[in-house]
Amino acid sequence: MKPLIIFDSKKCIGCHSCEVACQLENDAPPGVQLRWVKSHTTGGFPRSAIHSISTACFHCSDPSCVSACPAGALHRRSDGVVEHLRNRCIGCGYCVKACPFGVPKLSASQHTMRKCSFCIQRIDRGREPACVAKCTTGALRYSPEGSEEGGLQAYGKSEGLHMIYVMEGRPGEFALPEPVPLNTTASLQAWKWFAGLIPGGAVLTWLWRWAGNQEKGDE
To answer: Which residues are paired to 49 by β-bridges?
Structure first.
């Protein structure tokens, strides 16, 4: 099963209903948005146009946030949803820095990171995510098994994202990174660990030489 949320920019009117529904359903504090709607202007006068986009966690096939989390508070479920276990979260912010889409947000009042949960409390009971259920124009659609994918040319589809975007125009016009970024956290982790050993090795080398010089001085 590959649950999908599909966004269609042609149907979005920027009403923010999905944004509000997400906040209420997932106990998000004021100022910490788990889903957000933004409008972008494309073209120039007199042929300019305003397009809105509803954005949340992309639930990546190889999520950087999961690779970066030292507490095991993030994991990818068998259905592809990236779940956040708030009782394990230590609020370190590593996932915030690792996410190429800038999705995770730190909640000062809740002392944890917050992000879209794909409304697992709803989809596990056969219901639509709250954002989809409250979308007034059908700009957000939910496909429990990805059956509505068909031949869509969508941003993130070929990369296995679980939040994909059918857009008029280029992704950059909607403030989306182009091309879709891949997880570099896991591939660079070994190099980061190695780099972290270098300062310690330098200190040990200095201490070794210092001890050797002291022994020579005593002689």
So the answer is: 42
Burial of 115 (0-12, 13-18, 19+ CB in 10 A): buried
Comparing CA positions, the residue from 34, 58, 59 lying closest to residue 112 is: 34
- Can you list the alpha helix ranges (DSSP code H) found in 33-99? 64-68, 94-98
Q: CB-hemisphere CA count at 13 Å for 110?
A: 18
Burial class (CB in 10 A: 0-12, 13-18, 19+), 190: exposed
CATH topology for 4-182 is Alpha-Beta Plaits (3.30.70)
Q: What single letter denotes the amino acid at residue 1?
A: M
- Residue 105: per-residue pLDDT: 95
Report residue 215 as tokens: 């022994």
Domain extents for the chain? 4-182, 184-219
Q: Six-digit token pair at 96? A: 């915030």
pLDDT band, very low/low/confident/very high, at 191 (cuts 50, 70, 90):
very low
Determine if the pTM surpasses 0.90: no
In the predicted model, is pLDDT for residue 190 greater than 50? no
Confidence of residue 63 (pLDDT cuts 50, 70, 90): very high
* Euclidean distance between CA atoms 188 and 193, whole angstroms: 9
pLDDT at position 194 over 70: no
DSSP letter for 22, please.
H
